[in-house]
Structures
1.
Amino acid sequence: MSSYRIHGTTGEWEVVIGLEVHAQVTSNAKLFSGASTEFGSEPNANVSLVDAAMPGMLPVPNRECIRQAVRTGMAIEAQINKWSRFDRKNYFYADLPQGYQISQLYHPLVGEGQLEISPDEKNPDQTKIIGIERIHVEQDAGKLMHDQHPTMSYVDLNRSGVALMEIVSRPDMRSPAEAGAYVRKLRSILRYVGSCDGNMEEGSMRADVNVSVRKPGGELGTRTETKNVNSVRFVMAAIEHEARRQVDVLEEGGTIVQETRLFDPGTGTTRSMRSKEEAHDYRYFPDPDLLPLELDDAFLEECRASLPELPDAKRKRYIEVLGLSAYNAGVLTAEVDTARWFEALLAETAAAQGKAEAHVAKQAANWLISEFFGALNKVGRSLEDSPVSHAQAAELLALIGKGTISATIGKQVLETMFETGDNAAAIVEREGLTQQSDSGAIEAAVDAVLAANGDKVEQYKAGKEALFGFFVGQTMKAMQGKANPQVVNEVLKAKLG
């Protein structure tokens, strides 16, 4: 599907991309302890004896973490393995107090699934399926702090033991745009499901980016892994730089080393971190302190029943039932908070106008996407902290839908609502903005406009019909935008013959 190519001195190169996304499971406790997972706490404030690997401490799996991982697997149409097992991944590092990480290498909780992406947001019907190899659950490590002392590094174990889902894709992506679309779509699904908040800037979702290059259709090249990339934009930038770097190395006669690299957001470049370890370097073996996970049918049924309407199904419903365009449906379903806000607005707008939701859906969608989002951008706010509620917005749309005010006046009222927080009806009454449908007043305004533009009247009658819009505009201007446009059009047509 992708036509993305790296142009080198020896011709075109294709980029092959796979992503390993680490998503922090939404839970009020860690994977094997009851310690808090609150973000922003003081260093080492959220550390239990288990997290610190004190002697004699044994891990106990957090049922909610397992449940959330299973629900995530179901949301991407993946195989849920009723039997899975924890393994110890052994390596030494100062932020890993146990000397090993509890993970799942050989028998993961979730098997193969897939994700449908739309790489081009302006063309949402053009899609591609990205395979997902597995989702396994594992505990996070702590964090080294290098800026607290001139000669020593400190260790913060707040993240030690935090539950992660590692979501491993197939190497099915062929461009930075596809990788960006994949991360956005995955983050959207996680937020819909409620299994991860997707806040990449807080580290609760991050991606390891695997990149290799090859001649189009050729054998797979040697890949590098760029670790812990924490934004969609940085994922795309890391791919662009790393693919270009690999092409330059190969065309100069060099070889690509399988290694782990880091991305520098300041320079937009990657740099070598360490040679890439193979799985056997970690000396994996089953964790002797943990029994295998065995899931029964009742647990799986409860997980499936708890899933919400997911973005693809919601988008389809918006198009087929509500009659929205594919673009508008895509915008409204991309984030769960947007979809919830729209549906609250839609329900209240329909109730205020006494109509079915399908009859007011286009009005509500168009206003939310164009006017409301525009107003939010002006004041630097999001829907979550909007100064105007969906109930207030529904009242405004009802005034427009009932003909009390025109759409043009509605935009003016919306600006005032954002500035003052007042309700639409109060603003309309206070400022005398009610739309005029009195044909007598409108006729008088039309007569004045036609009298002042006699030459254009003659041109119109001679066949220049495009001037009709000019007459409408001049009449609306003369009546300060308060005239009912439908009545204006009717009067003008009668007057102009």
2.
Amino acid sequence: MATEETVQLNELHAPQQASIDAFNSILPDLKGELAKLRRDHDKHEPEYFRAVKDLSDDDLTSFSSSDLEAVRVAVSAYGLHLFGKVKIPTLNNAYIHVRIFGSAKDGTDGSSADEREYKLHSIHTEEVVKDDGDRVYRAIFGKNDELEWFDT
């Protein structure tokens, strides 16, 4: 399994066409999973999505590939790991962080963009335990929040 310790993410940069194409290929899945994730978290820990609590699912998922503002990429023996920062256009300073995995299509080595297929790996949710034991949860990030390796 690829981990932060076993692969090197490149520097944050504007998405190039290959990243935009990968993002577009998982966009319907991403929108469905984001709405589902919010509904699931709202049942038990609504703080994750508190920043967007007044948005409808349609507003929350109104982003397109033009809202993919920045990416970081890592290559492992398993494939390509693409991390993206996506602007939620209906709010100021509201972003989600997504992870996409690209692997070789059957019968290819995956060395070119048209030989890869992409899947949504995860949408980042964060739980931070403060020194006093209090927990802070979020799935909505700001423009200045770093896009770092995540598994959740």
3.
Amino acid sequence: MRGLLLRLHLALLAALLTGLLDPALATRRDFPHEPGKKFCYELPVDRNRRYLLRPTFFYGASSPPPPVFDLIVDGTFWTAVNTTDDVLAGSASYYEAVFGASGRNMSFCLGVNPDYTSAGPFINALQVIQLHDSVYNATNFTASAMGLIARTKFGSTDDVERYPNDTFNRYWQPFPDSKHAVSSTHNVTSADFWNLPPPGVFNTALVAEQDAPLVLQWPPIPLQNDSYYVALYFADTVSESSRTFNVYINDYSFYEGLTVTSAGLSVFATQWNLSGLTRVILAPVSGLPPLINAGEVFGLFPLGGYTFPRDARALEAIKRSLQNIPDDWNGDPCMPHGYAWTGVTCDKGQIPRVISLNFSSMGLSGYLSSDIARLTALTDISFANNSLSGPIPNLSNLRNLTRLHLQDNKLNGTVPQTLGIITSLRELFLQNNELDGAVPLNLLLNQGLTYQFLPGNNFFPRPPR
């Protein structure tokens, strides 16, 4: 439900630019429809910093309708992308979220969900913006991410606005109201605000009538019952003046006795529960009527977790030892669930472990990395029917391994005696390689082991079939 909710809100509030007006939308990259695969961009980042991600999608005039697919960041499902309504309007769709960086790279992925459509995902552009440490800093980005629901400039009659002095290139949607809209020309210093809003968002406002509250339905769409980050921005439109009022959201007190001057201020809540249609009510207390200049609402959603770090590092090393690898071997190897790398099976634990590698008949070349032995939860390994060369590494650390299928390759060297000390091993197929020497006696005497060493190979003495 979370992904559907964010998709609907962002589709409704997306910056609507036609492909003819924005050069970034003149081309798109398409990916194949391969269910369960994710196609990733690896983004270099600074550990423990937070990043605003803004992908853009414009399918153009086309029939049938554009595909629907998933957005994934590292191991976290973000939202589903559905641009159908925007395509019918000749418009682009923008999605936006803020994620914390846990390492030196962040993966942004498009996931092929077989429950959606029968066409592969696409993308036109991706903006990645490192945020200042103060921006949205009250959110715990080690546990959550933030998906944009609305970012609004109240009183504006223009189109979506961006400001050259906003280093984060944020988009602000208009919220026109001719009855209450007021303009202002005095300057507000954004450095005084944690979220560093551009000063331009304070040059319009909605102002209540004298002795009356200002009531807004905002965001203008219903919200799922959940926690939200809400930030509201205020600056008196009259120089050297002030006004005091109370702020309510859905009849609950958000801030009482808020005194606003022309210098401006903001109030926010990091986890405010909202559900359904939302009303923002500004009730006068003293002085001039209440007003509001801008606001932001983000949905909070939990991070999806990561593959056990040692397993993830081992798979990256294995990837480097191979050629002709599948094109979805990027991003987190196990997460989110349903999007593991091709051939990789993981358990369903809170911190997933890799339990099986089935790389049979993938057209792989290269060699078997010794880092396979670091995947200590493995029960099954198959590299059968590829073009791997080099020796068989020491796998004695794999105490849970039951099946090892390496047949029909170009492996050379001897059969490691260390295979015989893996007491859990029940199947060992090594035929049709270029192995030589003697088969270790501890393998031949293992009555619980089904093995096949021939044909092929050059063992002496020749082992029994």
